[in-house]
Design a protein that fits this description.
Blueprint: E1 2-7, H1 15-29, E2 33-37, H2 41-45, E3 49-52, H3 82-92, E4 97-102, H4 104-115, E5 121-124, H5 140-161, E6 164-169, H6 176-185, E7 189-191, H7 199-211, E8 217-222, H8 251-263, E9 267-271, H9 283-301, E10 307-312, E11 315-320, H10 321-324, H11 333-340
Parallel strand pairs: 1-2, 1-4, 4-5, 5-10, 6-8, 6-9, 7-8
Antiparallel strand pairs: 2-3, 10-11
Helix pairs in contact: 1-9, 5-6, 7-8
Length: 344
C-alpha cells in the first residue's frame, strides 16, 4: 500500500509518535510506502507533500508539535468541492489510503470523505480529551501535567501575597483538563463548561474558605466555562476559524475583576494558553500515540476504512467515525463530584 498521512487542527504532544509508529508498522511488512502532507488538509488540496521514510521519522518520538505541520483548513469551506481536489491529489500520488490525525473537525472531513468512497482511517487527537470512541486521547496527560505544574507554582505566590489566583486553561466544550489538573493541583474551585456557574456563589465560597483561615485561593476555569445567564459579562469573540468555531477568551479576565470586586481579595489571572499543547509529550502519551499509529496502519492494511482507532480500558479498539463523532465526550459527572469534595 501507499499511505498518506496528515495532522490537522491544533498541534498536540504525541503527533510525531503516531507518524513514526505508522511508518514503522508499515515498513515492518515491507512493500508499503508513505507520503506526509504538509499543513493538514491544505497539503492535500495543494499537493504539498514529501516522502516519509525510516530516516525521516527517526528521532521524532520525544518531539512536540508535528513534523508535518498543521492547519485548520476546511476542504469544504465556501462551498468548495474538497472531495474532488483530494481525489485528484491522491490519484496523482497513487495513494491507496489516507490516515488523518486530528480532532472533531479533521475527523469530520475524514468521515465525509469516507462517505464519498475515499479510503480513510482516523486517529483521534485533542488535548481536550473530548472525542468520543476512546477513553482518552494522546496529548491530554501532557496538558494536565503542564497545568498541574503551573498550579503548584501559583500556590506559592498566591500564599505569599494573600491572593486569589484564577487559572484559565483550555477546554472549549469540556472540562477534562480543568478537572484533572484542578484535582491534582489542589484547586479550591473548578469551573467547567458542563456546569454553568454563578459568580456570586463562587465569591461566597471563597469568602467562606478565607473565613476559616486560609488567606489565598486557586480557581481553575476552562476557557469554555459558561456563567449562568445574567451573572457575569464576558468579552464576546468575533473571529472564527474555517470550521466556524469562535475564538474563545476572556473568562479568566472577567473572573479576576469580578471576584476581586465581590470579595475584596486581591486577584490575579494566569492564562496558560498554548503552552498547554507545546513541548515534549509525557511517557503515557508517547506510548498511547504509538499504539494508535500501529493500530491505524493495521486497520488500513486490513481494509477497515471509515474507522477511528481508540482505547477502551487497556485495549485498542476501532469505532466507526460516524459513531465516534456523534457527540463530544463530556466530563464524567462522578469525577467532578469527587473534585467538589476538596473545594475550599
Amino acid at each position: 500500500m501507499r499511505v498518506g498521512l496528515l495532522t490537522g487542527g491544533g498541534d498536540c504532544p504525541g503527533l510525531n509518535a503516531v507518524i513514526r509508529a505508522v511508518v514503522r508498522r508499515g515498513l515492518a511488512d515491507q512493500g508499503h510506502s508513505f507520503v506526509g502532507f504538509r499543513h493538514g488538509w491544505a497539503g492535500v488540496l495543494e499537493d504539498n507533500a514529501f516522502e516519509l521514510t525510516l530516516s525521516s521519522t527517526a528521532g521524532i518520538l520525544p518531539r512536540g508539535g508535528t513534523i508535518l505541520g498543521t492547519s485548520r483548513t476546511n476542504p469544504y469551506a465556501d462551498g468548495r468541492d474538497g472531495t474532488a481536489a483530494i481525489r485528484e491529489t491522491l490519484s496523482a500520488r497513487e495513494i491507496d489510503a489516507l490516515i488523518p490525525i486530528g480532532g472533531e473537525d479533521t475527523l469530520g472531513v475524514a468521515q465525509r470523505l469516507h462517505e464519498e468512497g475515499v479510503a480513510v482511517v482516523g486517529v483521534p487527537k485533542t488535548i481536550d480529551n473530548d472525542v468520543g470512541g476512546t477513553d482518552v486521547t494522546f496529548g491530554f496527560q501532557t496538558a494536565v501535567q503542564i497545568v498541574t505544574d503551573a498550579i503548584d507554582r501559583l500556590h506559592t505566590t498566591a500564599e505569599s501575597h494573600n491572593r486569589v489566583m484564577v487559572v484559565e486553561v483550555m477546554g472549549r466544550h469540556t472540562g477534562w483538563i480543568a478537572t484533572h489538573a484542578g484535582i491534582a493541583g489542589g484547586a479550591d474551585a473548578i469551573l467547567v463548561p458542563e456546569r454553568p456557574f454563578d459568580v456570586e456563589e463562587v465569591a461566597a465560597h471563597l469568602r467562606a474558605r478565607h473565613a476559616r483561615g486560609p488567606s489565598f485561593s486557586i480557581v481553575v476555569v476552562a476557557e469554555g466555562a459558561t456563567p449562568r445567564e445574567g451573572t457575569l459579562h464576558t468579552r464576546e469573540g468575533t473571529a472564527t476559524d474555517a470550521f466556524g468555531h469562535a475564538r474563545l477568551g476572556g473568562i479568566g479576565v472577567a473572573l479576576e475583576s469580578e471576584l476581586e470586586r465581590l470579595t475584596g481579595y486581591e486577584s490575579r489571572v494566569t492564562i496558560l494558553g498554548h503552552v498547554q499543547r507545546g513541548g515534549t509529550p509525557v511517557a503515557f502519551d508517547r506510548v498511547l500515540a504509538t499504539r494508535f499509529g500501529v493500530a491505524a496502519m493495521d486497520a488500513a492494511v486490513g481494509g477497515r476504512f471509515g474507522a477511528m482507532v481508540g482505547v477502551r480500558g487497556t485495549q485498542i479498539v476501532e469505532t466507526p467515525l460516524a459513531e465516534a463523532l456523534r457527540e463530544p465526550k463530556l466530563l464524567d459527572p462522578e469525577l467532578f463530584r469527587t473534585a467538589e469534595l476538596f473545594f475550599g
